[in-house]
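Handout, page 2. Input:
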Amino acid sequence: MDPRIAHLETQFVEAFNAGNVPAAVSAFYATDAILVLPHRPPAESLPDIQTSLQELVTNGVQTLTLKHDQSTSTGNLAYVTGRYTFGSNQYGSPPELDVGISTILYRFLAGVGWQAIVHVCRSDRREHLLDEWKECRTSIERFDKLIVDIRKYGFTLITGLLTAGAFWFVKPDDNQQADYARSGISFVLNVLILALFIIDRANEVFLRAAVKRAERIEKYLGSIGLTTAISDAAEKTGIVTWAVVLYTLFLLVDPSLPLLKPLFAVVADALTWLTTLQFLDQVRAWWQFSPSYLALFSEAGRWLVKCFSRVGYWIVALPPAGIMTLVSLVLMWSYHFYTKKKLL
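Output:
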């Protein structure tokens, strides 16, 4: 092969791998060149060629390699065949996104040099990608079924145990042995709920990994969009966050956690303060830009201190099982935000 053609291909590959698609296109292709990529319509102008290659980069292609098998030249034309590889360095993608046969027809013009006028990439991996996509869909269905079973049977078990625990907690036994039994029940419930949540979230992570891989294949093939459509609809519903909220409610209805009493007390304090004539007078004076707004802020500050005092006293007075519930809540939501940011 002509060394000038080899140098031209090397510059083209280096520019593409550096992410500089415009420079790669302008230096490699002639103004009347045609590029045919797998699963895409032919690009018959430099702007169309640049758009096609830029779409590859957008869909995850980061590296391009060209290997020559044979070349033939006659006059001002050269014909080169070989293998091409579109690769990726992104998480969740294989090193080779697509491989196939590359056929390039070059033309030599005086004062310009060699330029590609026809470039055809014929993929021989479409069937493999389709098989991988089908396996992704099977994995998605399997993980989805596992999550449904975990929530269906797990929520049924938790509901039954919480109901049984409530009957135990309302019994008038005040001896130390009964307190130990109640604490043990609450501890076991907390551990069970937290364990179910972790298992649920682990399968959710595996599910999202399969979904992301299926979406990448669909974007690359360009003719399938099932997973992308379903994923977009699921994201809009916020189903993952609602599942965490449901687990949170299971923790909050723990019989050892008297949550409603301090909550009602704070609400009652707020309603009492808001309905006093003194408060209304202060608001009216503040709205008229009177110095009395200081009294309004002072009253609001006293109310906030009172509310925080109630909550603080409630936390300090919690039994060990109630503290375990709060710890479980912190761990659950921390794990939720971590996996959502890093993995989902």
